[in-house]
Amino acid sequence: GGGRGSRGFEGTGNWGAIRVIERMTGRAFQPEYVVYIIIAVNCLVFLLWQNVRLRRFMHKHFTLSLRGIVVDYRFHTLFTHFWSHNSEGHLLANMLTLWFFGTECVAMLGVARFFQLYLAAGIFSGFCQIAWPSVASALPIPAKYRMWAYDLNLGASGAINAIVAYNILTFPSRIILVWFLFPVPSAFLGTLFLAKDLHGLYTGQSHIGNAAHIGGTFVGLAAWLALKRRSVWY
Q: Which domain range does residue 111 map to?
């Protein structure tokens, strides 16, 4: 464990922002701090949602939709939407998952790679979510997605799914206590969630961002394969 952590920390010294934080705090920047920073930013954006006067602004700039991209040219929402939650349950579930899987993942990847993976997955998963209805319309599946152009999407699930996927692929036989009660191998749990998202895409009856989840999982898989191929950790 210690060896992975020391390797994962390599490269963080090249980040000017990290050096500034170290000077301000007088302490070495630990890899897991980036997870806490991401959680803090998500909580801050959640607080902005609670201000009624900001609701129109938040809907306009912190949610993602196909119409918002192709008609209103709000390309920045491909980035801002995955820092955005407007319900306590959504925020809590995502941030707990990020904390559980992210702190170990950043120790393996290092701050720079971890943050790059998180950002890439957030953007790609958002693109998948707004592009999927167009793809689905050409496939022989029940999903119709009649109102897809106006659907508003937000949440960090796609970005977090990349972190979860990377962790599960690295430790597939690890036992995870579901609801702190039921021991389940991580690979089996990941397969169940993937099957659930695929079913949601097929039926089109889910109000969850299934395409975003799968897009994030794909980015996590791609990162794991790329780093394994380079034998980074071996």
A: 28-229
- State the pTM of this model: 0.85
Residue (of 96, 130, 123) closest to 219 by Cα position: 123
- Please report, as a single letter, which amino acid is at residue 14: N
Residue 127 lies in a domain: yes
- φ, ψ for residue 36 (rounded to 5)? -65, -35
Residue 14 counted as domain residue: no
pLDDT tens column, 35-78: 999 999 999 999 999 999 999 999 999 999 999 999 999 999 99
Q: Which of 147, 125, 156 is nearest to 62 (CA)?
A: 156
Tell me if residue 181 falls in helix, strand or coil.
coil
Burial 186-218 (b: 16+ CB within 10 A, else e): beebbeebbeebeebbeebeeeebbbbbbbbbb
Closest CA to 159 of 130, 198, 117: 117
Would you say residue 6 lies in a domain?
Answer: no
CATH code (residue 144):
1.20.1540.10
Residue 17 lies in a domain: no
Number of domains in the chain: 1
